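The data are quoted verbatim here:
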Amino acid sequence: MKRYQKVYEMVKSLCIQQLEQTGKIKGVCAKEVAESLDIYRSNTSADLNRLVREGKLKKTTGKPVLYSVNMDDIDTVNVHKTSEKFNNALEQNIIDKIIGANDSLKTAVLQAKAAIMYPPMGLHTLLLGETGTGKSMFAEVMLKYAKQIGVFDDKAPFISFNCADYAHNPQLLISQLFGVKKGTYTGADRDRAGLVGKADGGILFLDEVHRLPPEGQEMLFYLIDKGLYRRLGEIDTAHKAQILIICATTENPESALLATFMRRIPMVIKLPPLRKRTFSERLQLIRAFFTAESGYLKTDIHVPANSIKALMLYDCPNNIGQLKSDIKLSCAKAFIHYISGKENNLYIRSEDLPEYVRNGLLHYKEYRDKLEKLKLDSEMIFGASEDKSEAYKTTDTFNIYEAIEEKRSLLKKKGLAEKDIDLILYLDIETAIKKYMSKLNEQNMEQLYKVVDKKVVEVARTFLAYASNKLGKNFSDRVLYGISMHVSSTLERIKAGKSILNPHTEEIKKSYPAEFSTATKMPELIKENFGIDVPQDEIGFITMFLIAEDYTKKKDSARVGVLVAMHGESTATSMVDVTAKLLGERHAVGYNMPLDKKPETCLEELTQLVTKIDEGKGVIILVDMGSLVFFGDIIHERTGIPIKTVEMVSTPMVLEASRKAAMMSSLDEVYDAVVNLSPYIGRLYSNSIDYSNGIKDDVIVTACFTGEGAALKMKGMAEEIIEKTGCKADIIPIDIASIEEYNRKISQIKQEKNIIAVISSVKPQDKTLTYFSPKDLIKGKFKSFVYSKQHDKNIELLDQMREVIRENANIDAEKYIDEFIAFYKNLKAHNINLNEDMLAGFVLHIACAIEKIQTGNFKHRTDYSQTDFLKKEYEEDFYIIKSALQSMAKSFDIKFPDEIYANLVKVIHFV
């Protein structure tokens, strides 16, 4: 939506508001519109005058100049339906009770009202603001306001979805949001509605909307424009949904991504950070939060002036959310003293506030005058019966105070003294609060529990306490995390019937006798807690954890480099960050490959990165998909650095690779550990081909030095190519550890089969074989080779025209040429032969037609006489061409008009 269109919609909305409140329209001034849209007044005036010239607005003479819409443009029926409810709600308008509604949020509230009132179901809205500014709360209040004035039914749903939660899995994100059709992917055993369907008739709130992937954006915009959506996997079926969409983001409004949303979503509301709210508003927020806590406690809370001043003045980077968290923490600490009987009232002392909050008093001198204007009492008392601001009513279900009372009761039953109970609660309470408020500060242990069973962690903790006492040394959390994940992996391996082998057990036992003796305790604990017998070799691994920190402190210790490379803006680095937090050490390196960056550039950058992180033991590259799978081979060929590549990377795989690297494992050991961790890769490898039975005479060999996963990936790409060409050959993937083994396997296959080609990062010793590198496979040289063996020269010409199409038509060139080859073969089967000039003309003509049809720029002829003549004169060829093009039309989801077929007939017959 362009700016002048937004100006018109705002004027219309404000005029409707006037009509509903007063029964007449007086008009709005340029300043009011500019403030509502947060744009320059000069631009607003220019747009308003343009709309007047176009006859869409009227304006008054005199000052101030007022602008209004024509009554014909207003649905007065809908206006009168809501007018009565609106007037009844004016006395207790929920949105006007938001703290700051008449001050820092005045413009935001005005915009929200206009967005909700706009017939028939409001204007889609984008909320901008930093973390913790109250965007989700504001969206909920908008729904309550809509219900209050009758725009929405009382039972209208409010569905909230955080796009960041599934940002690393676009398919899962889209299926959660729009639903999924049965059979779309493995596990989709039924049609399932998404959140869009559940939000029908209400509000869909999309938080962190800038994390929505491109395909999700397209589906969202289609929903906005058409009121229709399709579930994942659906092609022909579309579902209707009447939804008001409210998006929220912390993204910079100037970013290109957000600009896309701002063009499509007419209402943009900016929520200010806490530092830009007035002192009066901040005090009201503090009152609201203390009052809410008193409701949980069912008792008054006493807060001295100095504590209030500290809360007023401290730096609060996470805004309202952090202020609420810090107040909850201080109340929880004070509650311990209160229930112990040491205090008659629940009193918030200065030591109950976090230190960074108390430091707020250092700014007192600077803001003394502003604070004095608030006329703070020496002590403020917040009671459970006080009215709470509607804007900040809490929906928390977990009551931390009940947890404190339960723990105190448990400790009393154990016979602990009061002073010991207080000490334990003080030590525990901050951790409990931080876990509860995990949105602001997620704990490493909480993250560990997501990937490791809690019971395993407790066993590891018990063992390390024992080891610390026996060895006389303390172990960091890094060791706890590492040993927890290792034991978890060991248990899974034993349960799966896999063996545990450590060829260095005896050597470890001799080198570290004290640590080895201590490590024998772990099998006892595992047997006691899980009923599982652990083999002797496992003790060697446990011993290595006890000395791991000593290893990592040695600067001369070389480790295998760990590189995570994935498509996306932050996918790889985010996964590496999680690993670093869990292990307490940053060894893995992340590389993000934006979707619009050229593979050649990425390859150069990755080559430099591998060279940088290699410590002499090689590098394991963990990738997600696509061209990244082959980069390891190419980099190995260029640099000579030993490299292993594993695809379908996940967080546990990065954890395992980093952990093994920290233990000084070899590249092969790290690779084997990661491969064994992935059931997907295990299944993939189990499907390796036994080429001595049931294989065609003609074969293509894919060979990889960086792991069999890459060889299988190349096999998959090559298979797609030969299937399209009808080439009668099988593909054999092989994993090789050395040049000698490589040439030996090639020779063995050649004795039994006819090798058409070899695809590998290293040329085979046999110079008679046709060789292609992974780069050749990606660039299309292998495809051209296969086509040349199967088809005429026209097919080669078509294959070469892919680049021409990329440069001259805004369509998917790969898909188009593949479809055109099928079209060409169809014509040839019907004895319609094209020379090179005809072929080139056909290719460009049809490609341009597809682009114009898709963009709505195709201009139909006004005179159909020639089309009718060609259709009648060359009827057979006309319908052959029409039939042959149907597959292409379906693939691009378009319909060719008859004049396209007629033009092609014209080219063939030189009419």
